[in-house]
Amino acid sequence: MTTHTNAPLPTNEAMRPILEMRQVTQTYTLARQKLFEARPTLTVLDHIDFDVRPGEAVGLVGESGSGKTTLTRILTGMEQPREGHVLFDGRDVWTAEPSHRQLFRRSVQVVMQNPRSSLDPRMRLGASLLEPLRSLRIEGDHAARVYQVLDQVGLSRNALERFPHEFSGGQLQRIAIARALMSGPKVLIADEPVSALDVSIQAQVLNLLKDLVRDLGLALVFIAHDLSVVAYTTSRVSVMSAGRIVEIGKPLDLFTHPKAEATRNLVGAILTVESGLAGNALA
Amino acid sequence: MSGANALEVHNLVVRHDMLTAVRGLSFALPVGGRMGLVGESGSGKTLTALALMGLLPMGWQADGSVLHDGVDLIRQSDRALAHRRGRTISMVFQDPLSSLDPVRRVGYQVSSVIRRHMKTSRREAERQTIELFRQMSLPRPEQLVRAYPHEISGGQRQRIMIAMALACYPQLIIADEPTTALDVTVQKQVLRLLNGAVEQRGCALLMITHDLPIIAAMCDTVAVMYAGRIVEMGPVGQVFRSPRHHYTRGLLESQPTMDNIALDGSSRLTSIPGMVPPLHSLPTGCAFHPRCAAATEKCVAEVPTLEGGTRRAACWHPVESMAEAAAS
Ligand SMILES: Nc1ncnc2c1ncn2[C@@H]1O[C@H](COP(=O)(O)OP(=O)(O)OP(=O)(O)O)[C@@H](O)[C@H]1O
Ligand SMILES: Nc1ncnc2c1ncn2[C@@H]1O[C@H](COP(=O)(O)OP(=O)(O)O)[C@@H](O)[C@H]1O
Ligand code: SF4
Ligand SMILES: [Mg+2]
Ligand SMILES: [Mg+2]
Question: Where would you say this protein principally sits, based on its record (chain B) (predicted)?
C-alpha cells in the first residue's frame, strides 16, 4: 500500500486558460407533442462560462441530467453550441483556420465512464493505442510513443499483445487513459471515469490522473455526480444545476459553506463510513 | 436450526464445471438482524445471493446448506422455491429495469404479487399497492400505478422494486447493490426508505454492496468477502474502526474522507495495488497474498481459517489495533 502527501496543486492563476467556454448555450429541438404545435426546445446549457489552465485540475459536479456530458461534448468539439464560443489557446475553434482546429482535436482528449465500451473488444491493446495516431494523422516514431505512454500510466509492455477482456475494469480505465494520451493532449476531460470501478481501483485511477496533471502539466476537467470524488481530485469545482453553473469554489469551501441549493443537496447526499457509523446518516 | 435465525448458511459452495466462485461461506442472520456482505466486483456476492434465492444461472450449482423458515433451501424443489420467493424471502436487484416487465403497468406488477401470495381480492391488492407506493414516497401514487416502467425514473423504479419486495411482509430481504445504478442524490433517499421500511416491519436484511458507507449506515454486522470467501466478520463498528484483515483495512483506506477533501486537491488516496484475481487463477493460501504488504511464506502456503466468536478474521498476521500497537 502506498501513501504520500505532495505539495498543493498549483492553481496557476497567472497562466491563461488553455481551454475555455464563453457564454455557451445549447438547445435541442424535441419532437412535436401535437400536430400543428411548434416543436418545443429544451435549453440544456444556459450561458455557461468555464475554463481550465495548464497544470490545473478543475471539477464539474451536478445531479443527473444537469448538463455535464453535454458540456463535455461541446468542450471537445463533438458538438457546436447554438450560442457562445469555445476557445482553445485563446482562439475560437469554430471560426479558426483548419490547422488550429486540427491542433485543438489532438490537444483535447476524453476518458469516458465505461472503459469496456470505449475499447474495441476485437483489437489487441497495441492496435487500440495506435488508432488515435492514425485517425488524427500524427507522424513520428509510433512505437516509441506507445512505450512512453505505457510508462506514464504504469502498464507493462506485455499488455500490448492482449485483448480488452483479459483486463480488469481498473486496468482498462488505465488503458483508456493511455489511449487518450497518445496524441499528446494538453487537456484531458474525464466524464465519470471512476463511477464504474471498485473502491480499491478507484483510488489507483484517481491517483494516476493527479500524477498526470502534476508530471505532464496536463489540464484536467474531472466530471462526476459524486462531490467527494471530485473534491479529492481537483482544486476548483463548478457546480451545475439545470444547465447553469450555480456555484464555483474550492472543494473545502463547498463542503463547509455551500451556498447554492444544488451544492447543499450534493453535500447532503454524501455518505461516509464515519457518518454511517455515527448512526444518523439516513435519519 | 435455531429458531432465532432468519437465515443460516453453512459451508455454501457455488461452482460451474471447474470454476468455484463461492468457496465455503458460513454465517447466520438473526430474525430482524441486518448484515452487510461487502466485497469488490467478482468476489462472489451476486452468485451467493442468487444461490440463496434458488436463482443461479444455467450450469451453476450450489452445495452446503441454507436454512430459512425451517427448511433447507438448497434441497427444495424449484416449485417450492418459486412459491416462497416474494413471500417469506424477497430480493431487490441492482438493475430495476431488467427485473420489471416492460409491457405491464407497474401497479399491476406489484398488486399481482400481493394477490398471488396473500390471496386477497383484486381491489384490496390495488389498495395495498397504492398504500405501498405512498410509503415509498412515490409521487401521485394513484396515477403512478398506471405507468409503464420506461415512463418513470431509475430512482422511482427502484422504489417500486422495494415496494414489491416488501409487499408480503417477508422475514428476509436480500438487496444486491440496490442503489449502485442510481445518482448519488437519489441513492440516499432510496436507502432511507428501505431502511425505514425494514425497521418498521422488523424483517431481516442482507445488504450486498461494494460500498462501505452504505453498510456502515444500515447494518449491525458485516462480512467482508474476497475471492469467494469471507475474510473478516463482526459488528460493523468494530470491523470498520479496527479492521484485522489487511484487505478490509485497504478498502477502508481507499475511501475519500473529509481529511482528503480538506486539502483542496493536494492529498493522495491510499490504494490497494493489483487487482481481484480471476476465478481460473486463484492464488494459493490467503487469496489476498499477492496484494498484501504483510504477506509471508505461510500466507502463500496455507489458507487462514475464520475462527473465533462474533469477531473473526482469516489472517495469519492480523493488523494490530491502535491500542495493541501502543502497548507493544
Ligand atoms: N441530443 C439530445 N437531444 C435532446 N435532449 C438531450 C440530448 N442530449 C442531452 N439531452 C438532455 O439534456 C439534459 C442534460 O443531459 P446530460 O447528458 O448533459 O446530463 P448529465 O449531467 O451528463 O447527466 P448524467 O449525470 O446522468 O450523466 C438531459 O435532460 C438530457 O435528457
Ligand atoms: N454467469 C456467469 N458465467 C461465468 N462466470 C460468472 C457468471 N456469473 C459470475 N461469474 C464469475 O463468478 C465470480 C463471482 O461473480 P459475482 O457473484 O457476480 O461477483 P460480485 O457480485 O461480487 O461482483 C466472478 O469471477 C464472475 O466473473
Ligand atoms: S493472511 Fe497473510 S496475505 Fe492474507 S491478509 Fe493476512 S498477512 Fe496478508
Ligand atoms: Mg453524463
Ligand atoms: Mg454483483
Answer: membrane
CATH number of A19-32+40-114+188-281: 3.40.50.300
For the CA of B292, the closest atom of ligand 3 is: 8
Q: How far apart are CA A148 and CA A141, in angstroms?
A: 11
- Cα(B165)–Cα(B87) distance, integer angstroms: 9
The domain segmentation of chain A, as residue ranges, is 19-32+40-114+188-281
What fold, for B5-219?
Rossmann fold (3.40.50)
Query: CB neighbours of A19 closer than 8 A, spacing ≥ 6?
Result: A51, A52, A75, A86, A87, A88, A108, A186, A187, A219, A221
Query: SS3 of B36, please?
Result: strand
The answer to whether B60 touches B47, Cβ cutoff 8 Å, is yes
Task: Find the mean pLDDT for residues B63-81.
Answer: 94
Report the candidate in B288, B299, B168 with the shortest Cα–Cα distance to residue B228.
Answer: B288
Q: Does B188 touch chain A (CB under 8 A)?
A: yes
Instruction: Kindly tell me the burial class for residue A220, based on how many C-beta atoms sit within 10 Å of its own C-beta (0-12, 13-18, 19 or more).
Output: buried
Partner A contacted by B262 (CB < 8 A): yes
CA distance B328 to chain A (A): 23
Nearest-CA residue for atom 25 of ligand 2: B42
Task: Supply φ then ψ for residue A249, to 5 degrees.
Answer: -170, 175
Query: CA of A172: which chain B residue's CA is closest?
Result: B275
In the A/B pair of chains, how many CB contacts fall below 8 A? 164
Q: Please tell me which residue of chain A has the smallest CA distance to B260.
A: A232
d(CA A78, CA B82): 50
Within B202-278, residue ranges assigned H as helices are 212-218, 236-241, 246-253, 258-262
Alpha helix stretches (DSSP H) within B220-303: 236-241, 246-253, 258-262, 297-301
Residue A154's region, left for phi above 0, alpha for psi from -120 to 50, else beta, is: left
* pLDDT tens digits, A246-263: 999 998 899 889 999 999
As a three-state string, the secondary structure of B127-178 is HHHHHHHHHCCCCCHHHHCCCCHHHCCHHHHHHHHHHHHHCCCCCEEEEECC
pLDDT tens, position by position, A35-68:
777 778 889 999 999 999 999 999 999 988 889 9
Judge if the beta carbon of residue A69 lies within 6 A of ligand 1: yes
B279 pLDDT above the threshold of 60: yes
Q: Which residues of chain B from 286 to 305 reach within 8 Å of chain A, CB to CB?
A: 293
Q: What is the predicted ipTM?
A: 0.87
Return the residue of A nearest to B290 by Cα.
Answer: A1
Domain boundaries, chain B: 5-219, 243-327
> In this complex, do A8 and B41 lie within 8 Å of one another by their Cβ atoms?
no
